[in-house]
């Protein structure tokens, strides 16, 4: 059962299937269990990228 909807539960610090905790407690869906296991790293990378884009925007280096 590696394919399908997987979620990372912030409440339990665990990967869950669709039948897990309420949406407010989890990240996802992810396509695979392995991807869900990396959810916190994925979020950190996306936040870092967004923060860099915000800094560039403030510095006048707006994307074309």
Molecular structure report:
- By secondary structure, this protein is an alpha+beta fold.
- It has one domain.
- It has two helices and three strands; from the N terminus they run βββαα.
- Strand 1 (3-9) and strand 2 (14-17) form a beta hairpin.
- The longest helix is centred in the last third of the chain and has 20 residues, at 39-58.
- The termini are far apart.
Q: N-to-C SSE series?
A: EEEHH
Q: How does the helix and strand content classify structurally?
A: alpha+beta
Number of strands: 3
- Shape field: elongated
- Cα-atom Rg, whole angstroms? 15 Å
The neighbouring-strand order within the major sheet is 2-1-3
Helix content: 25-40%
Q: Can you tell me the residue ranges where pLDDT is under 50 for at least 5 consecutive residues?
A: none
How many structural domains are formed by the residues? 1
Provide the residue-averaged pLDDT: 91
**Count, helices:** 2
Gap between N and C termini: 43 Å
Our estimate of the beta-strand percent is: 25-35%
The quaternary organization reads as: single chain
Q: Main sheet, how many strands, which sense, barrel?
A: 3 strands, antiparallel
